[in-house]
Design goal:
Helix content of chain B: over 70%
Low-confidence stretches of chain B: 280-285
Distance between the termini of chain B: 48 Å
Strand content of chain A: 25-35%
Order of helices and strands of chain B: HHHHEEHHHHHHH
CATH topology of chain B: ABC transporter involved in vitamin B12 uptake, BtuC
Shape of chain B: globular
Structural class of chain A: alpha/beta
Oligomer: heterodimer
Largest interface: A-B, 24 and 17 residues
Strand order of the largest sheet of chain B: 1-2
Radius of gyration of chain B: 19 Å
Number of strands of chain B: 2
Structural class of chain B: mainly alpha
CATH class of chain B: Mainly Alpha
Number of domains of chain B: 1
Number of strands of chain A: 10
Largest sheet of chain B: 2 strands, antiparallel
Mean pLDDT of chain A: 95
Number of helices of chain B: 11
Bound molecules: adenosine-5'-diphosphate, magnesium ion
Radius of gyration of chain A: 17 Å
Shape of chain A: globular
Strand order of the largest sheet of chain A: 6-7-8-3-9-10
CATH architecture of chain B: Orthogonal Bundle
Strand content of chain B: under 5%
Number of helices of chain A: 10
Chain lengths: 238, 285
């Protein structure tokens, strides 16, 4: 369980002249679910954008033995590092099925794609019902399912999920967390980015806490849950 | 003249207009570029088919696919090596560049092909078909059918193929498309090439039903613009309907107002649209 899949060191990034990330180090091992938590504006989404090479950055991002820095977002995607972005970012005027097909854009194994479709509709039966509907017409929870399924259609090695729980009812969040545990069992490593610390820690093995562009704590979920500062700041308990 | 006959003339021409506008709408919707050189591409496609017909004695309908391939390559290269450099800049920049391109292409066409009127007249140019008592020149009927077939082919491509899905996805959400493996520089070049190919096909058909000169581009760009605004960027059927509308309006104007007024129809609509649209968006704000 301790083969590093993603190793980030000294990562700096920002928007134009404004720095947001100040030299981050982070490691994700194969088969783990790692939670990245921190309050609004701490730099979580910026980190994912830097990893997916959508914004300029300095430092090193090594994924499965490959340096990602010189790559473009579409090349990062092709390495098996797939992002489910904040706000779902579905193709709103395409059907659910077409959105899922976009996830499989670079795959050249038609039979495997058919199997993946079947698997997605098994994980998310509601998507099967809605598969001819425009993604923009789905409810928030269904949209998040569609976004997750689109990401999984790519057969990722590492799935980075940004603010999955945002705006969703707690029962829906629980349902999605169960799905994440299932797909981890199927061999997908997961980086779960959340403001909802309870939700993230309920499925994660390890966690990182980010504050204004710095990693301020890291450890197993059990260790982080015992940390009294964190309990006050994020879990709202003394 | 029989009213039905006028209507049919308009519909035949309108199909061609719709095909022409589809190319502009595709590029506009996906790349967010209003290509002011679109009419010049139509013009080049017209010359392409003209010279394949007169030089190689190809049937003009058989020459259409060749003209489309040529125009695809022209469009692809222009996007890849010129327009991709400025695609992230303001609308004003892309308008200026494509306007400059229009001027250059028109000038080059005048140098290379002279200002003479060129008509593509195959042996069957004088033949007619009669449908329900209405006489239709065979060439116009063929042009209309070709336009419909190409429009349908475009629709099937957008709905059913990997490339079509990538094109639609990119037009709807560029960031997500990149996150899911679309290379925008390549996709934009292919899309611009497809737009130019559709323009090229429309140009060949235009040379059969009318005449090609180096100067037809500006008017055709304006017509494509009007039709695209009427039809909407996301809806190939809307574009074809817009083309039919302009075609019919021009045919009616030619009979009831005078043949010199046909262009005034689309320019009048252009002015109306430009006046009406900002007003609407201001009210929306
Ligand atoms: N596109 C952007 N342009 C400029 N600044 C941005 C942009 N996106 C985020 N920021 C800034 O970067 C900081 C981190 O934001 P973000 O990474 O979105 O935080 P989080 O995802 O943890 O809520 C914030 O101060 C935010 O205002
Ligand atoms: Mg965020």
């Amino acid at each position: 369980m301790s083969n590093p899949l993603l190793t980030i060191s000294g990562l700096r990034a920002g928007y134009g002249a404004a720095p947001v990330l100040f030299g981050l180090d982070l490691k994700i091992n194969e088969g783990e679910i790692v939670a990245l938590v921190g309050s609004n504006g701490a730099g979580k989404t910026t980190l994912l954008r830097a990893i997916s090479r959508m914004i300029a950055a300095e430092g090193s991002i090594n994924f499965a033995g490959k340096e990602l820095m010189p790559l473009t977002p579409e090349q990062v995607f092709a390495t098996g590092l797939v992002q489910v972005p904040e706000g779902r970012q579905l193709f709103a005027r395409m059907t659910v099925e077409e959105n899922l097909r976009m996830g499989a854009l670079l795959r050249r194994d038609p039979e495997g794609v058919v199997r993946s479709f079947a698997r997605m509709y098994e994980l998310f039966p509601i998507l099967a019902e809605r598969r001819r509907q425009m993604a923009g017409s789905l409810s928030g929870g269904e949209q998040q399912m569609c976004a997750l399924a689109r990401g999984l259609m790519a057969e990722p090695k590492l799935l980075m999920v940004d603010e999955m729980s945002l705006g969703l009812a707690p029962v829906v969040v629980d349902q999605l967390l169960v799905v994440l545990s299932d797909i981890r069992k199927a061999g997908v490593t997961i980086l779960l980015v959340e403001q909802d610390v309870f939700a993230a820690f309920s499925v994660a093995d390890r966690g990182y806490v980010i504050e204004t562009g710095h990693i301020v704590r890291e450890g197993t979920v059990a260790e982080l849950e015992r940390d009294s500062d964190l309990r006050k700041a994020y879990l709202g308990v003394a | 003249m029989l009213f039905a006959q006028i209507l049919v003339n308009g519909v035949m021409l309108g199909g061609l207009y719709g095909l022409m506008a589809l190319g502009m709408a595709l590029v506009w919707g996906v790349l967010n570029i209003v290509n002011l050189a679109h009419g010049a591409f139509v013009m080049l496609g017209g010359y392409c088919v003209y010279f394949l017909f007169t030089g190689l004695h190809l049937d003009p309908f058989a020459a259409l696919p060749i003209a489309m391939v040529v125009m695809f390559v022209v469009g692809y290269l222009l996007q890849r090596y010129l327009l991709n450099l400025i695609i992230r800049s303001s609308h004003l920049n892309t308008l200026l560049i494509t306007f400059g391109l229009d001027v250059v292409l028109t000038y080059l066409a005048q140098l290379a092909f002279s200002a003479d009127f060129r008509a593509i007249n195959p042996t069957y140019a004088g033949s007619n078909v009669t449908l329900l008592g209405v006489t239709i020149p065979l060439v116009r009927f063929g042009a209309f059918l070709t336009a419909l077939v190409l429009a349908a082919a475009l629709w099937v491509m957008l709905e059913r193929t990997r490339l079509g899905h990538s094109i639609r996805a990119t037009s709807q959400n560029l960031i997500a498309a990149r996150l899911y493996g679309v290379d925008p520089a390549q996709l934009y070049a292919v899309t611009f090439g497809l737009g130019a190919a559709l323009a090229g096909a429309a140009g060949g058909l235009y040379g059969m039903v009318s005449q090609v000169t180096p100067y037809i581009g500006a008017t055709l760009t304006a017509k494509s613009f009007v039709i695209t605004i009427m039809g909407g960027l996301d809806n190939p059927f809307g574009i074809i309907l817009g083309g039919l509308f302009i075609g019919i309006a021009e045919a009616l104007a030619a009979i009831y107002i005078g043949p010199t007024f046909t262009d005034a129809i689309s320019f009048g609509l252009l002015v109306l649209i430009l006046v009406a649209r900002p007003a609407r968006s201001l009210r929306g704000a």
